Amino acid sequence: MRVSIMQLVKLLFVTVFISGGTYTVAQDESDKKPPYDKDYVFFGATGGASLRESENENALVFIIKDQQKKGYNFLVTGGYFLKPTLALGGAVRYDESRITKVTEDTDGITADIQEAGSVLTTSAYGKFFIPLTPNKRFNLYTIAGLAWVADRYVVENYSQNLLTRTYTNKNTIQLGLTPGIQVFVVDGFATEVGVNVAGFSGSRKNVTENGVANSAVNTFDLDLKINILSLNISFYYYFPISKK
Amino acid sequence: MKFYSSLITVVALIFLIVSCVQEDHFGASSEKKIISFSLQGQVGNATIDEEQRVIKVTIGASEDITSLVPTEIVISTFARIEPGPNETNDFSQAALYEVTAEDGTSAEYTVEVMQEGSEPQLDNSSLDNWYSTPKGYQEPGNDANSIWATGNAGTVTLGSPNVTPLLISGNDQAAKLVTLDLGNLAGAIGQRIAAGSLFTGKFQLDIANPLNSTKFGIPFSARPRKFSVKYAYSPGSPYLNKNGQALAKKDSCDIYVLLENREGVEPKRVATGWFRSGEEKIDQFYIITTDLVYGQLGANVPEYQKPSNGLYASSNEKVTHLTVVFSSSYNGALFEGGTNSTLVVDDFFFIYN
Questions:
Q1: Do B228 and B346 fall into the same domain?
Q2: Surface of B (198-217) touching A: CB under 8 A
Q3: Are A153 and B21 an interchain contact pair (Cβ–Cβ within 8 Å)?
C-alpha cells in the first residue's frame, strides 16, 4: 500500500500520540503479557480489486472505442517467533489483471486486444525487533528478506485478419532490508510503517511473439539509497500459540 | 509453527502451479484464413472471397498453368496449410487448399486460375470505378484489393485528399491529381508540398519515412509496345520547395510506365516509357501515346528516366512487374512543386502492335 508524504506524516503523528497514551496505561498494567514473545505468531492479510470501463477514450494516435480493465490482488503473510525479538516469516502476494479493448487508429483500422497478466511474489524473511518501551508496544524492526517474483503477461492483438500473441515471462529474485516502526494500537493488533533502504534484485525477461523468441533481457540492480516514496504500511495480528 | 509454515508453503505452491498466466491463456486460435495468395507468373492482385472461400488468380499468357508454384501464401497466425506454399500444383482445374487452425479446426479454399490473353489491359484502367475508404476519401478501384493506389492516406493526415474522382459524363470518371501546399507545419519537417500521385501498387503510410510509404509495382508479364492516356494539365504557382521557399521554376507533370524483372535481389529494368509535360497549360483532354523502350536507355535520355540502381534486364528476360505512375508535379518525390498544379488523367491503355 502506498501513501503520500502528507498522509504518512499524519499517520506518524497519530501513531506517536496513541503509543504515548498506550505506554502510560501499560506502565500501570505491567503484569499484562507482552504483545509478542518467543513462540508467538503473527499474521497479516490485505487485498484489493479494481474495475474500469471506458468508451471512445482518446489516446492521441488512436481511439479506444471500448475498454474494460479489471484486476485484484491479495497478500498473505505470517511468521513465528524463534526468540523473543526474532521471528521468521513468509509471504505470498498475487496480482492478476485483465484488459479487453477495441482500438481504432487514424486510418480507421481496428484492433481487438485482450491482455492478461499475473504477478506471483513469494518471500521468506527474518524480522528483528528492538523494543522502545518495556511493554514492547512501541518497537523498531528490521526485515531481511528474499523474494521471488514470477511475472507473466500475454497480449493477443487481432487486426487486419492477423493475430499477434506476445508473451512476456519475467522472473526476479530480490534481496532487501526494510526497517520500520511498529506500534501496538490494540491488544495483538499492530500497525507497521517500513521503508526499503537497501536491496539487490536480478531478473530475466523473455518475450516471445507468436511462439518465436523475440527478446531476452537480464537485469541486475543494487540499490543502497532510501526510497522514501516506497513506504509500506501494514497491519498485523500477534498472538501466542503455546501457554507460558 | 509447523502448521502455519506448511500452510503458507502449500498456498504458495498452489499458486505457482495453477495461477500464473500462461502463453495459451486465451485458448488456441480458431483463425484459419488465407489472407493473401500469389502465384508464379501472376498478373494483378488475387481476389479472395472469404465468404465462399474462393481465390481467383490471373496468370500471364506464357505461363504453364499445369505446373505453377505459389510465390507467397499468407495464412492466419498459428495455422498451417496443405499443400504447402512451395509445392507445385496443377491449376488447370480448381485446386484445393486446406487451412488448419491452431485449435485443429479446418477450412477448405478453392483456387481458380485464369490465363490472360496475350494483350492484357489493366483492371479499371478507365479509372471509372472508385471506392470509399474508412476515413471517407475515395480511391480508384472496387475495393482495397485494387491494383491502383494513391498518396491520399498520407495527405489526409495534414490536409485533404489530393487524388479524387472527376465526373466527365454519365459513368465516365477520370482521376484529378492536385499538388497541395500542406502549410508551415509540414514545411518544418521538410514535407511542405504533396504532389498528387496515382500509381499501380500499394500505399502503406510510413510517417517516419514518407517516401517509403509508396510500394510501386504489381505482378505483370506482358510486353506492350506503347501506352496511351488522356490528360489535361495546369501547372500551379508559386513553386515551393520542401521547406516552403519559393523557387523560380515552373511545374510539369510526369506520366510513366516501367516494366521490371524482380526475380533477383535487385529489380532490373526491362522497359521504360516516360512522358513529362511541358510547362504550358493543357485545358482540354489531350491523348498522348508514348513508346516503351526495351533494354538499356541511351546516353541522350534524361537521367531521371534511368533506373536508380543502374540495372537493366537482358532482352530475353521476362517481365514480372509493372509500375504505372501519374504525378501532378515532376519533383513530387522531393516534396516540391507548383501549388495547385492539377493533372487530370483518364482511359489509360496499352498498345501491343
A1: yes
A2: 205
A3: yes
Cross-chain Cβ contact A80/B205 below 8 Å:
no
Residue A30 pLDDT:
46
What's the rounded Cα separation, in Å, for the pair B265 and B248?
Answer: 41
Average of pLDDT values for A209-218? 94
Q: How far apart are CA A150 and CA A162, in angstroms?
A: 29
Domain count, chain A: 1
* pLDDT in the model for residue A234: 84
What is the extent of the structural domain holding A182?
5-30+41-237
Domain around B295: 130-351
Residue B195 exposed, middle or buried by CB count within 10 Å (0-12, 13-18, 19+) = buried
- Is the CB of residue B33 less than 8 Å away from at least one CB of chain A? yes
The pTM (predicted TM-score) of the whole model is: 0.72
Nearest to B175 by CA among B254, B237, B231, B256: B231
Preceding amide of B219 cis, omega within 30: no
The answer to whether the CB of A22 falls within 8 A of the CB of A185 is: yes
How large is the ipTM? Answer: 0.73
- CATH code of the domain containing B38: 2.60.40.2340
When pLDDT is cut at 50, 70 and 90, the band that residue B11 belongs to is low
Question: Can you say how many angstroms the Cα of residue B123 is from the centroid of all Cα atoms in its chain?
Answer: 13
Chain B residues closer than 8 Å to A107 by CB: 134-135, 153, 205
Q: Look at B5 and A109 and tell me if their CB atoms are within 8 Å.
A: no
Report yes or no: B38 and B71 within 8 Å, Cβ to Cβ.
yes
Would residue B226 count as lying in a domain?
Answer: yes
Same domain, yes or no: B97 and B197: no
Domain harbouring A191, CATH code: 2.40.160
Residue B157 identity: T
Spatial contact of B37 and B48, defined as CB atoms under 8 Å apart:
yes
- Return d(Cα B323, Cα B298) in angstroms, integer: 21
Q: Lowest mean pLDDT: which of A18-32, A198-212, B286-300, B334-348?
A: A18-32
- Asked whether residue B169 falls in the same domain as residue B317, the answer is yes
If asked whether residues B143 and B64 sit together in one domain, one would say no
**How far apart (Å, rounded) are the C-alpha atoms in residues B18 and A96?**
13
Residue A129 in this model has a pLDDT that exceeds 90: yes
Q: Yes or no: say if A51 and A88 are a contact pair by the CB < 8 Å rule.
A: no
Count the Cβ atoms, other than its own, within 10 Å of residue B352. 13
Domain contains A243: no
- The CA radius of gyration of chain B, in Å to the nearest whole number, is 26
3-state secondary structure B297-314: CCCCCCHHHCCCCCCECC
Asked if the structure places residue B331 within a domain, the reply is: yes
**Residues on chain B touching A41 (C-beta within 8 angstroms):** 1, 4
- Chain A, window 7-26: residues with a beta carbon less than 8 angstroms from a chain B beta carbon: none
Tell me the chain A residues in contact with residue B20 when contact means C-beta distances shorter than 8 Å.
118, 120, 150, 152
| Chain A contact set for B35 (CB, 8 A) | 161-162
pLDDT of A24-70, one tens digit each?
Answer: 344 444 456 889 999 999 999 989 999 999 998 887 778 898 999 99
B9 in a domain, yes or no? no
- Cα angle B88-B92-B95, degrees, rounded to a multiple of 5: 60
B335 in a structural domain: yes
Q: Is A106 on the interface with B (CB under 8 A)?
A: yes
Three cell numbers at B57? 488468380
Look up cell 502528507; give the residue: A6
